[in-house]
Amino acid sequence: MTWDITGMAAVANIGASPREIFTALCAGRESRTPLRVFDPDKYRAAYAYEIDDRPETGGDIPRRATRWLTTVVRQAVADAGLDEDLSQIPVLVGTTMREQRSLELWWRDNAQVALEDLHFGPALKTAFGASTTYTFANACSATLYALGMATDMIEAGMADTVIVAGTDAATESGFGTLDRVQNDIPTALRPFDTTHKGMLMGEGAAAVVVQRADAGSRSVHARVRGVSMNCDAHHATAPDPDGITRAVLDAYRRAGVRAQDIDLVMLHGSGTPLNDATESSVLRCIFDGAGPGPRMTAIKAMTGHTLGGSGLLSLVMAALAMKEGTVPPVLGLADPIPEAVGLGLVQGSPVFGDLAIAQIDAFGFGGINAVAIVEAAR
Amino acid sequence: MSTEGTARMRNRNVRKVGVTGIGLTLPGVATYGDLLGPLPGERGSVPTALSGRGFRHKDRASRLALRAAEFALHDASLTDADATFTGAADATAVVVSTNLGNAGSVCTTTDTIAGEGVRGLSPLGLPQTSSNVIAGWVAIRYGLRGPNLTICNGVTSGLDALAWARNLIVAGRAEAAVVVGVEPANDVTAKLLGEQSSEAAVAVILEPADAAASRAARPRATITGYARARNLVGALTCAGVAEEESAGLWLGDEAGAGVAPLLAATPRIDLESRLGPLSGALGVLQCAAAAAHFEGGATGNVLAAAGGPRHDAAAVLLLAPSSTTRPSTQEPGERP
What we know:
The complex is a heterodimer of chains A (378) and B (336). Chain A has 378 residues and is of the alpha/beta class. Chain A has ten helices and 15 strands. In chain A, strand 14 and strand 15 (368-376) form a beta hairpin. In chain A, helix 1 (18-27) crosses helix 10 (310-324) and helix 7 (241-255) packs across helix 8 (273-287). The radius of gyration of chain A is 19 Å and the shape is globular. Chain A starts with a strand and ends with a strand. Chain B has ten helices and ten strands. Chain B starts with 16 loop residues before the first strand and ends in a 16-residue tail after the last strand. In chain B, strand 7 (247-251), helix 8 and strand 8 form a beta-alpha-beta unit. Chain B is α/β, with parallel strands linked by helices and 336 residues long. At the A-B interface, helix 3, helix 4, strand 5, helix 5 and helix 6 of A face helix 2, helix 3, strand 3, helix 4 and helix 5 of B.
């Protein structure tokens, strides 16, 4: 069974649509900016990958993550040629932080924020009349978890169309605690490069419309072949190679593919030494003996870590990469870490080729992993 | 697309999923059997330290959840004498419902940054910057490697969590699920809720009825329907509750009264009017109350409802007695 992706939308620091973001990734110009949202004097980290839509007068405002969410849902629905009335369509939202940034502004600065603003149901009801809405706080694998559950709903006959979306704004508690725990503070997010020092936060949102195959929609961007989801049950914040391996192999099983069928891997690539070493070691094993191996890229080098929505943003970029036959490079990757040597990481400039099947990785705190397999719509 | 609406969280001819274990960490309520009787008027904390091995360096909500999960797994006979999980660890899901779980940590962290800078923060606070911290700790404690889900969906969260746990089982992604509804109580939660609440955690074990039967587990209730919709009437319709059907017990607030003829003559228990705001713990506690109802020998289905006019949606969960639910020699919810 496959599921059609008939609508896509995204916003990030480097663009306000999937096309803009993809073009920027291919152009590969430095995208980090000096930290603006929080008082830079309080942190060792001096850079982030923020969306620059705060008031010019300075300061932060609540509900930015919610605003991006309703924007991308509206655009994805329009892209799919559907009506904006979502009263009969489930909306599954994946997020790491929910509206915790608004909670911080409420607590510190008396911003007008209510308990109900923490999840996204009220905004989706106001904007689209949606009621079958869910906010899944599943860390940085949240949107691929949500995608998997959307395919389950369609397969079980509970829905023919499901919207899957994700959004996150940087939180001070998250940014500050990361600043405290990262030994060496990164000046840029440099996945798989020997200069990588850790992750820097990004901001963004993404949405897709998932439909039962051949639901008669006008156009199909890509087809979901299968999504796995599991938990390491190993460590609260560190990744575990066994859990990630199980997630990758389960995704292959669900999709009915083998390692040698994969043409493109959108890596989780958070830029932390531990993630990069773990993810590349696992993939070296997976693709060992599987021919020349797939091309690989890691978009967080330019978007920063967009947290809950990052998996879906990678998936949207995979859909465009397959359409264009183009894989954007990993910005700043000059000297791959030893564990990544031999992997088909794209360096310097885009590479071109026929891409039929993509693997998307997303791993999160709590040891939760999700891997999606998507095929080109031809 | 179907003209009758596509958002049907209901399906027929699928594996029946039921409750095989229940655990509570709720001040003044010793066992789930007590949920149907008079409940404590005072609100506060669980009178245990929740300290020592297994609880160190964890946030309060995670500790409450771990204790409730411990009781529920024991109740379901899924742990041995050393409290080690004996079920299918690779295929057991954890589904946590919480709205306020890490709200206190988030706010106090910003206070510390403002006062002392990041040097004042503990590195051990990193996990609870993410709202899924509780589900992670429960999985780690018992080695549960199935899907691990955290639902922060407002007042319907607990009912939603039970429905999604059932979905994961029906879809074949899990053979069992530990569903936890948990909320801590602190200055931040009191300010958010506008009143003092009690800390609360409740855990429910869900398993397919056939699997439960094959290991001779004691089924307490079967989930037979669920929907989240614009309002209570819509949710009842989507969940497949027919007008002429009768229910033995309605768990919900008075906002539902009068809108649904079915409910007019049904005995009602509003857990929040007795225990205070339960937020993400509500739905899972309603499920525990339904099990107590069935174990007391009562007939008729239980209809649990949450949300409504003041919220973004209403959700209902239908529970039926399991075919083998019977008044046992044990008191309902008694911890052996």
